[in-house]
Amino acid sequence: MIKSPIPKVSNKKQYRAIGIISGIYKPHEPNILNKGFIEDSNGLKIDAVVLGKALHIVKKFINFEKKYYWIVYPRNKDSKNIHLQITGIWDPSNFKNKDDNINNEHDLLSSLNLKDNLFSIRGKLIFINIQEKELIIKICLSNKNKNKNQKNKSFKILVKGEISMKFINSFVSLEVMRIDNAFFMERFEIIDSISPDIV
Questions:
Q1: What angle do CA 151, 122, 194 make, to 5 degrees?
Q2: Domain 119-193 sits in which CATH superfamily?
């Protein structure tokens, strides 16, 4: 069975922001590999850092002239800048069996209902700008991912899209596409309404 780069959620109200992007990772400095950028298929350079668990793979196995599918955690403060945290590499060649009828990476992603630049954003819908067609989703870290210095660590993702004001403060699941430096909502699901004092 082929492992999906974006796994299914473990529970209905699982917060997350994760995606997959094809590109070439290039560090800013040859001897400092954890800070650099991903150059996508259109030549756009997106600011990126390599998280600790992925750094070993980058050091040992990555060719900095070759494209890979990067599993990333997105961050943004507006619709003009995106920052990516690299958490892993998805290499389809490791999953193909001789019996597979899948001929290329695009088909392999399609078989998993995924595509390049697709992101899964799940969290609390805390802001809706009707005029600008913008949404802000608040994502909270789960207890198991928190440490002593992250008592209430959370972050916000800005997405271009439209959802009715009646769903403000609801827990939502968004399927989002990255286009250049912005995230655009393709579809959404209202998972549950959330009382404003919960988060």
A1: 75
A2: Nucleic acid-binding proteins (2.40.50.140)
Best CA proximity match to 144, nearest among 34, 45, 16: 16
Q: Do the beta carbons of residue 125 and residue 137 sit within 8 Å?
A: yes
Per-residue pLDDT tens digits of the chain, which is 199 residues long: 467 888 889 999 999 999 999 999 999 998 999 999 999 999 999 999 999 989 999 999 999 999 999 999 999 989 899 999 999 998 766 655 544 555 677 777 778 888 999 999 999 999 999 999 999 999 998 765 544 454 568 999 999 999 999 999 999 999 999 999 999 999 999 999 765 544 4
Residue written as tokens 């070993």? 56
CA distance to 53, 120, 162, 197, 199, per residue, from 127 (Å) = 33, 18, 11, 15, 14
The residues facing 25 across adjacent strands are 38
For residue 160, list its beta bridge partners. 134, 184
Would you say domain 16-116 falls under CATH 2.40.50.140? yes
What is the rounded distance in angstroms from the CA atom of residue 105 to the CA atom of residue 103? 7
Phi/psi at 161 (5° precision):
170, 175
**pTM of the model as a whole:** 0.87
How far is residue 164's CA from residue 136's CA, in Å, rounded to a whole number? 13
